[in-house]
């Protein structure tokens, strides 16, 4: 039987609030409507919707010592857009360096006086985000990113070329903190175009899109010149600048060049987090906050890609948020069987009907450091009826998904309608998709049918693990008593083999030097990167204890053993059919099957082997069912 194993690896950078298209009228700031029912995560210190910023958008240096118009040496007063050339461009988008405007603070340290808590910003403008402009108006900068507050885009003055962009903008707000000794990390997310530097109490904590060498003046061009605003998630672990009470957060936003067509800034979130560590559990039932969609809405509506919502740039700010296990039984919190009781109630039915919501969608972020040191991951998940898990936009695991999958997000269907949640544990050997910083996990949860009585989802854990190059090693019979077959999975795709020796020839824990080796046949890798191998060992003697190992290349498995019987007096075996593990609950079915085997062996202790007549599992592609 060909078995398809999906791999689960660690996903996604979520996008910030992206409002609808807006048209500016008479040059006045036009602000898109907010959804009054939108839920804001109250644990956040900064959010797009609630944080009020003071900002400077009039081409004035916030570090100016006085109100004169004295210009810094070497700074042209009538800078031309043609002077902003990419002669030293570098990076993904190309960086541009150009200085213009009325800079009055020449030293790098002095230019940052405006980032300190005691700076007087009472004369600045005040508004909520997001901020920006496209050709001087409120418009879509791409990907649905529309500024909430219009920034002044162009420099006014008789000596300036037409439509010369203001080189930089400055923002300040305060956050209130208590018990700062217990805060170990801050997680942040911004959108920016073209470059940004963030400060807390005058100390730089993050920069994005900034040219090499930074800025020597406040009113200076230089940045990525990206086609659309860039989403950036980051974690701050050096928090020595924090203090009890009010803390000042400052941001400088820079244009890439003098003839840029747009500018954008949105500080989507700043919240207390947990430092990234490869030894931690990255996801837990108790600690992980999920953004989720439960209202029978397609998160990919309007897109040709139904999985666009799993991608890093997707905006989930309007989704609900919650912790723990999620689910419902007949519209209420109740036991779904096997002790699975949801912590957070999901909306079970569409509006006032008894028609079940067909699918639910979940997103969260995990922060990782030194992913090159991570060799494997282990994930544990419970669900009813079917799930697909994505990491950084990639499909990495499927559980109980019907043949052919889903052609749309709001679809019913599972390989088998579960009577209780399925419980799967997966080891992930291929972690190549992980990256330092933010990784986004997205999950779609499907109902089996419109009349389903329950729904359940719990991502119990995601944690670092040791890689397992070999798994599911199984010893079986072959043509006669002198032969035995071994099958296994391996993440190593070459030189599959098995070696066997007599146990009596072992030297301590070392494999016998007098060993026979047999080549294995290989089946191509499945979606998880595992290959299936089978080898046949021949020349077995009766009444002999053997040890064996499976291998690939220079890597070998643990040592296993078996003992042959007398060939002259026949043998006993058990025949079983239709266990169909997973037809109900995988956990319950597995327990029942194992109890059956124990009873059979107790009744027939001379049994040499068991033959399964078929239907061992309910879903061929579900590896968790074979574990029973």
Automatic annotation (TrEMBL):
Coiled coil: none annotated. InterPro entries: PAPs_N (IPR015914), Purple_acid_Pase-like_N (IPR008963). Residues 56-88 are annotated as: Disordered. It comes from the Bacteria. One of its GO terms (molecular function) is acid phosphatase activity. The keyword Signal applies. Keywords: Signal. Residues 58-72 have a biased composition (Acidic residues). Residues 1-27 form the signal peptide. The keyword Signal applies. Pfam families: Pur_ac_phosph_N. This is Purple acid phosphatase N-terminal domain-containing protein. It comes from Hungatella hathewayi. The lineage of its organism: Bacteria, Bacillati, Bacillota, Clostridia, Lachnospirales.
């Amino acid at each position: 039987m060909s078995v398809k194993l999906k791999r689960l690896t660690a996903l996604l950078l979520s996008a910030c609030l992206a409002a609808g298209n807006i048209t500016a009228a008479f040059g006045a700031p036009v602000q898109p409507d907010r959804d009054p029912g939108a839920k804001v995560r109250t644990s956040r210190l900064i959010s797009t919707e609630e944080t009020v910023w003071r900002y400077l958008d009039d081409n004035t240096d916030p570090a100016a010592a006085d109100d004169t118009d004295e210009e810094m040496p070497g700074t042209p007063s009538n800078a031309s857009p043609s002077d902003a050339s990419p002669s030293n461009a570098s990076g993904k988008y190309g960086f541009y360096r150009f200085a213009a405007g009325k800079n009055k603070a020449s030293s790098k340290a002095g230019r940052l006086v405006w980032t300190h808590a005691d700076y007087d910003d009472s004369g600045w403008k005040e508004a909520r985000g997001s901020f920006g402009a496209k050709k001087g108006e409120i418009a879509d900068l791409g990907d649905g990113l529309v500024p909430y507050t219009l920034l002044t885009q162009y420099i006014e003055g008789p000596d300036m070329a037409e439509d010369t962009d203001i080189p930089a903008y400055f923002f300040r707000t305060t956050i209130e903190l208590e018990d700062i000794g217990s805060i170990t990390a801050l997680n942040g997310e911004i959108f920016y175009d073209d470059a940004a530097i963030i400060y807390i109490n005058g100390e730089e904590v993050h920069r994005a899109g900034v040219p090499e060498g930074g800025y020597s003046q406040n009113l200076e061009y230089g940045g990525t010149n990206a086609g659309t605003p860039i989403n950036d998630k980051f974690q701050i672990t050096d928090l020595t600048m924090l203090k009890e009470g009010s803390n000042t957060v400052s941001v400088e936003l820079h244009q890439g060049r003098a003839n840029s067509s747009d500018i954008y800034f949105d500080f989507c979130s700043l919240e207390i987090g947990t430092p990234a560590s490869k030894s931690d559990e990255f996801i837990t039932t108790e600690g992980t906050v999920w953004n989720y969609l439960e209202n029978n809405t397609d998160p990919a509506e309007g897109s040709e890609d139904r999985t666009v919502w799993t991608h890093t740039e997707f905006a989930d700010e309007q989704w609900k948020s919650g912790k723990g296990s999620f689910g419902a039984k007949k519209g209420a919190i109740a036991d779904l069987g096997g002790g699975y009781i949801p912590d957070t109630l999901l909306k079970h039915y569409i509006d006032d009907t008894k028609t079940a919501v067909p699918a639910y969608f979940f997103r969260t972020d995990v922060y990782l450091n030194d992913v090159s040191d991570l060799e494997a991951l282990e994930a544990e998940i419970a669900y009813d009826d079917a799930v697909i898990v994505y990491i950084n936009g990639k499909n990495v695991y499927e559980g109980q998904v019907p043949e052919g999958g889903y052609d749309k997000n709001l679809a019913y269907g599972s390989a088998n309608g579960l009577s209780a949640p399925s419980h799967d544990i997966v080891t992930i050997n291929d972690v190549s998709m992980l990256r330092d910083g933010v990784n986004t996990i997205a999950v779609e949860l499907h109902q089996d049918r419109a009349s389903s009585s329950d729904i359940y989802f719990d991502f119990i854990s995601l944690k670092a693990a040791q890689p397992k190059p070999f798994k599911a090693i199984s010893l079986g019979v072959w043509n006669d008593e002198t032969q035995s077959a071994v099958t296994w999975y391996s993440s190593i795709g070459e030189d599959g083999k098995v070696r066997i020796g007599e146990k009596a020839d072992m030297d301590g824990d070392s494999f016998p030097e007098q060993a026979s080796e047999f080549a294995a046949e290989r089946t191509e890798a499945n979606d998880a990167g595992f290959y299936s191998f089978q080898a046949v060992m021949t020349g077995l003697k009766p009444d002999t204890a053997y040890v064996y190992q499976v291998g690939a290349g220079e890597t070998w498995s643990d040592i296993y053993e078996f003992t042959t019987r007398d060939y002259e007096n026949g043998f006993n075996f058990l025949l079983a059919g239709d266990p169909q593990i997973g037809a109900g609950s995988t956990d319950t079915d597995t327990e029942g099957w194992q109890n059956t085997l124990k009873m059979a062996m107790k009744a027939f202790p001379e049994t040499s082997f068991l033959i399964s007549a078929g239907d061992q599992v309910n879903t061929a592609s579900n590896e968790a069912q074979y574990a029973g």
